[in-house]
Every structure is written in C-alpha cells, then in structure tokens.
Amino acid sequence: MIEIDHLVVACPTLEVGRAWCEAMFGVAAQPGGRHPLMGTHNLLLALASPRHPRAYLELIAIDPEAQAPAQPRWFDLDAPALQAAIRAEPRLVHWVARCNDIEAIAGALGRDGDDPGPIVAVERMTPRGLLRWRMTVPIDGHRPCVGAMPLWIQWSSGHPTDVLPASGVAIESLQVGGLAPALAGHVRQVAACTATDSALRAFLIGPRGPVVLTASGLLSA
Questions:
Q1: pTM score of the predicted model
Q2: 152: part of which helix (H) or strand (E)?
Q3: Is the pLDDT of residue 219 over 60?
Q4: What Å distances lie between residue 85 and 77, 164, 184, 190, 216, CA to CA?
C-alpha cells in the first residue's frame, strides 16, 4: 500500500508560512508541533480529495527555540541555496509517501540502487497526545532526486488528518520528473512520472481556484 501522505513547503519562519498559506489559498493553516529530533516545527493544512483522502500540506521551518540537532535537518533545510530561496517566498520542496511496510519499501529501493536512507523513529507532541512514526531520512538531510523521490513514512499512532478540520483545499494530482525506471515503478500508482525538468509539481484546487506548486531542481545546490 502506497499513498500520498503529505506535501512539504519550506518556510523561513512559521509566521511567514502562515501568511503565505492564507494569501495562496484563502484559508488558515492549523497548529502542528515541534520535532525535537530535527529542530523544526510545523503548521498543517488538510488536502483531502476523493483519491487522496488523508493527504495534507506541511509548512515547515527551523525552530529558533530548539536545540541544534546532531544530524543535518531533513528536506535540505540546512542548505544555503534552499534557505536563500525560501527567504524570498515559501516553496514546495518535497513530498512524503505513506506505506504499510517501510522495511520492504526501503529494502526494494536499496536493491534497485535508490537507497532512501535509514529508517528513523520520529515523534511530536500534540494537544491530543503523542504522534509517532517511522520515516526514511537521508543521513546528510538531502532530498533524494531533489524532491522527486519521496521520503517514506509509516505511522505508528494516529494520523494528523484524524483531527485536521476540512480546509476546502484538495490535492488533485502529483507529478514527478526525472526518476529512474525502477524508482518510477514504486511511485507511479500515486504520482504521474514524467521526463520534465521540474522535480515535483502538485496540482491543487481551493476556494481561490487552481493552484500549482512546483519544486525546482535548482534548489539542490
């Protein structure tokens, strides 16, 4: 089982991310929480659609009150080029695919030469209790295939969308580009695989009409 779990939009601060979300979609993002392992925090927005009923948008930023992590932060958040880009405007940078057997997925990818990184245990506290999950995270924090190859997640507790209110914004489709054939085979059931230069493109519809979010490969430097 593979599904779109969430889209990741990197922001210089959560305050900037909150304002960007309201300007882009006309709706407010909801409080998320802190990730002690990575020194980040987030806001969330439900993106439920008939095909992707448990998808959501994550607005993520470095938490200025958190202790610096022992490892590079996920999603390239420590990369100078990415930080320079999001200072101008929050950007779609990655996506996360949900599965029900993360060891099998990671093993298959590794055998195909597309190592997704080690599986790590992550958690964050919410007003309704602790959320726990396991996730593939490259040791150096980079985005595999510049965001086209997802990070893989398997939830060990409830899911964020269990308590997220409907936002009126829905994900219609996801497009990824430049993947090797074996890797494309793993994600083709949830994302259209193309040969375009753009690493990742998400097509959304909301109260203000269609929105296309694009992650450019230029942000990998």
A1: 0.95
A2: strand 151-155
A3: no
A4: 11, 29, 28, 28, 10
